[in-house]
């Protein structure tokens, strides 16, 4: 392998996948349905060995897996599920008990290389790797760690140090499920594979960028978890800043994950830390009544901020980020507003021609849309805005679930779908001034777009309206 820092990491393909926490909530909602889909597509050909507390046996696990796949809305093909179930087995025991790992060692004996996937609470992120090492199970193996990777900058460094004592960086992968989303990856493809877009992705043409991750549902039964985390740690520090990196990075000089990671690090390193004066924190009405939430909680369920990137490409361009729960609708969308033409030639007497917008919908009905101006037939009227774009579902068919790509990458040893540790540190640095503020969040009504004060972030002329879908029926041209 080349010694170049741009060379891809030499990761081995796995002969077995060990899934810690296979009976947990994440596995039920995301991992088991994704593993079924991978079996269906022929991409999962290795056994899956679950490790969990409790008194289940293999048959109970297989029944649970069927229920999880059905609950995900998947029509089960019995032949596919039979293949999937045949590869499932379970080891039960306490994660603090050495005999649990002795039984696991016996179960993986004979497999050449093993991937250990931690779908477990963060409190166990160091306990399990240490036990794996004590049992010799860190040899010929790699470790996959779910988010959150730390709780702040210092804890992220400490976690890295503790994990590195048992798994080196070429055998350690960090999950951010947004990185498994094909539509997020398409941000980079759209920019660098199309010379139509590449030349205008620059401060000379871009006026501002808005990134929204909105959810119309509340915290439901996750009150005790969410109250310790809040919107900033839950989605902004990881998901939204990873989207920002894809959107703003320079083109990598090689087509591999390490080269991409270095470019993401460069642009995040140039991003200013968040300014409390440019930030609005909100909390929806009724949040404090949720079970598990402290009655005097100051945890934010809404977060909006303005960011700047101090480099040659983006200097002076504001990036507006907002996310929240119990908002008007569910949508994850990037809106890039281009600069207005230097002269007004086509607007009406009392109006200006709207700016061109480029929209990327990266969750739900994914796609890319550009709002272009065309002439209206009526004399004396301004141009008409016409959407032009691509609905990914119509063009590409079913898109893989993010966890299909993550689990396949974990088994195959493909780091493309995972977070680069230096970028994780930069993300924590960027959000650090806002992690634990003393001021209470601003109340906002459920079903709204959050606190009205977020509409008045410095320099913001207004948030671009988002629809329930990127394109209305018959709107794609």
From TrEMBL:
The keyword Ligase does not apply. Pathway: Carbohydrate degradation; pentose phosphate pathway; D-ribulose 5-phosphate from D-glucose 6-phosphate (oxidative stage): step 1/3. Residues 188-457 form the Glucose-6-phosphate dehydrogenase C-terminal domain. Its EC number is 1.1.1.49. Residues 18-184 form the Glucose-6-phosphate dehydrogenase NAD-binding domain. NADP(+) binds at residues 53, 94-95, 147. It comes from the Bacteria. Catalyzes the oxidation of glucose 6-phosphate to 6-phosphogluconolactone. HAMAP family: G6PD (MF_00966). This is Glucose-6-phosphate 1-dehydrogenase. It comes from Streptomyces vinaceusdrappus.
